[in-house]
Amino acid sequence: MLRDLANRSMIVTLCAAALCAAACKKTDSAAGGGSAAAGGSPGTTAAGGGGGGGGDKIVIGVLTDMSGPYADIGGKGSELAAQMAVADFGGKVAGLPIEVISADHQNKPDVGSSIAREWYETKGVDVIVDVPTSSVALAVNEITRTKNKVFLVSGAGTSDLTGKACSPNTVHWAYDTWALSNAAGREIIKNGGDTWFFLTVDYAFGAALERDATKVVEQMGGKVLGDVKHPLNAQDFSSFLLQAQSSKAKIIGLANAGKDTINSIKQAAEFGIMAKGQKMAGLLTFITDVNALGLPAAQGLLLSESFYWDRDDGTRAWSQKVAAKRDGAMPTMVHAGVYSAVMHYLKAVAELKSARDGKAVVDKMKAMPTDDPLFGKGTIDPNGRKRHSMYVYEVKKPEESKAKWDYYKLVREVPADQAFRAPADSDCAMTKK
Amino acid sequence: MGSITAQALYPQLLIGLINGASYALLSLGLSIIFGLLNVINFAHGSLYMLGAFVTWGLLHYTGVPYWGAMIIAPLAVGIAGVVLERTLLHRLYRLDPLYNLLLTFGVALFLQGLFQMGFGSSGEPYEIPAQLQGARDVGFMILPYYRGWVMIVSLVVCVGTWYVTERTRLGSYLRAATENPGLVQAFGINVPRMITVTYGLGVALAGFAGVLAAPTVSVSPEMGSELIIVVFAVVVIGGMGSIMGSIVTGFALGLIEGLTKVLYPPASNTVVFALMALVLLIRPAGLFGKAP
Fold it and tell me: pTM higher than 0.90, yes or no?
């Protein structure tokens, strides 16, 4: 009996310890599409010209979230997109074979940093692509700069990558937080949605997204009536939604991502928020989120994306090729970004006939206009921002959708010159005089 | 912040109670299992997730609606639990309880990984059954019918489980076996089988909670691991193995969490752990646990 009791108190203590560990892990993986503080510091072992295998082949490293919350947005699909780009390019560039490798950064800046460093130093990796989760992307951004390699971001969202943290070795592809809140925000206010209430995830990314969106709302003469900060990975949003409901704001802006967005929309439908005339605006909502919600819950949602598989013949043809290899799952704008970025990178390497000097490759990429079936014609700004159109979509009603993944109808196209922040306003040292 | 009106408070309290109901349901299963098996069932969250996925799968693949799933899903999860107990858990009873803790933790990771591979990470959609859609204005708030339903059903199941363990012959065997398994066995009761059934029952409760959750949260591989942390805290506060303790604590913590969401929302995920630390300091055996 005594032994039993001793056992029990030991177990309770253990349990408490495990709980604390789990809770810590939770905040540690606090990742979103957006800006968090850069984790890893740049490496001190600046190996000039890279190491080991460099020279006899071009190696593309897909560094992504393979098993966590962003695995559907990037993950295996990003790896596939990179492989498809290589295949479509012919498998060789400047006479060298091209190899694609991949790894899981688990949304942790320290894990991502050590993989990036190892890849550059011993695996002969020339370019790292994708990298969802802003905190990891910011860390890889620094390492890439010190190693003079190339970093093509399409998974992460923070606009700091072409702002405060901009680098001559980095190009930011598919989207960023500035473009998202700008596109959807302007459209909504123009259509009368001039009072807002924000549901914001409580860490740097949410704060940045809310800040950017608030700026747009106020610029356009709208008003922010209030906000509520919720913890990351909250299961239950009803209390927060009740506060949003009683604010009587016309628009509830969701400054969160992934599962938090899914659950807030799902539960908003339950409380009849949309039915009572308030509208939801997803500031970072991917097509995979809409798929997870189902149209009955997601209908009427306004969101911005830079890529939608069903936009035109070019996007359809490519997307169906991708879907055929992924059990019918259509690609996200992140996948499209990986494909398009790798294509353009290979073109630049072909012109230079070498991938050795990362900065030179990126300069070449900036000098050449981009053109592909996924994003159309575009350019790359001096601060590394890839410029193309953004699109504001509304999620279809269930009866309007003809097939699975037929989810969006176009509300407006934001032309490339307005879709992204002007380089002069970006706080990037490279664009200052 | 100074203007916390009744208008703002009542809805949060009601919502808190509703959330408390699902905490109670989950911690109840954990408590029953711990009471008899001395096993901290870390797989509880994954089995809750399994319940939700079975619910989704039944509708998606076979067209069985929510109401059917309410019976089939807990049954399926219960059977999975029985298999788990027979093939793995029972081999480790002789050893330190730590080994079973590690085992169930491994099972949890395995299940979560398996579903991630099969279904991806963003989750699957599941709608509220047509009969329970809509909401009603109850004066101080809009109350969705489904939320009300969840609370009532959870309460009924909790009270039912309490009744079975405290007021029936079967329950008396169970409680006796918790105190002294050797003696109960000597009286001719098949204790190993009782352990198996208890484990199955405990995890079936988790499966049932999964069914209730499917229409309100994203049915995704990670849904269990996010919730289970709170539920463990509930069990620790209530007193490990105390059935009444976990029910009462479940509801109480739901209420406290609801209050925090009005007073200081960002702390709503942490308040439970602060309380846990406090309770462990003052009453190490938990509020309802037997003190050594």
Answer: no
